[in-house]
Amino acid sequence: MHGKQKKLIVVLGQTAVGKTALSIKLAKMFNGEIVSADSRQVYKGLDIGTGKVTKKEMQGIPHHLIDVASPKRTFTIAQYKKLAMKAIEKIFKKGKIPFLVGGSPFYLRAVIEGLEFPKVKPDWELRKKLEKLSEEKLFEMLKKIDKERAKSIDKKNKRRLIRAIEIALKTKKPVPPLKVKKPPFEILIIGIKKEKEELKKLIKKRLLKRLKQGLVKEVKNLRKSGISWKRLESFGLEYKFVAQYLQGKLAYQEMVEKLQKEIEKFAKRQMTWFKKFKNIHWIKTEKEAKKLVDSFLNK
Questions:
Q1: How many Cα neighbours within 13 Å face the side chain of 234?
Q2: Which residues sit opposite 33 in a β-bridge?
Q3: Is the pTM of this model over 0.90?
């Protein structure tokens, strides 16, 4: 990196579009390492349901921020940002190119926009109380104490709702708009785009593959390791509906159909978030991605 501006490449896109495979190909071609931006792959033991990359699939490319947290504890976005920035610096020091890869919009924004997070310590008593309320109730509550934050929050994300309420109550002020500190590197953002029908098929194919690989058994094992049903359901999608099936709340076929629908809805929500990002270069082929990276690194 001899005096040249440091460069970060971001590969984002909806669930099931093929971010992992593309990012590994690019990292191999351009001397890169991968930093995951996936809010569930940070947890140990959440493997099949999150589509965690296997050793074999990595093809020797180092991956960072996978398996860094215990599923028994909450892992915050502030923790993620700190670790991600550390990993990126480490990669620069080796003279390599960091690829930030994932589909969790808030994790991506934390790094790309350099979001700074309020330093409010968790209040476990308060969290326990709030945990008992539904997402709808929490959202109503947040609207009363912090109208601005309520406008921009993902109202289906219970963890984030609880955190926003916690900050507002503790500081007796609305959640401050997140401060932004421009990161010290140049960024290229590549987004993988699929047509709606194709995405539906990809989601279905991947869901069936995960069930075949033993998704139900994975959730059973997590439960055996002492993780409550409630906590399992908080991991969303696969974990939520498999947990409901294992508790006898859903029949197997019903679980599969619900999952397909919910994952499609989730993909739609992801797209809504990505539309708020600036400067995404949307691509359909690997060739387009290669060209973009090539000219970005050589300019």
A1: 21
A2: 98
A3: no
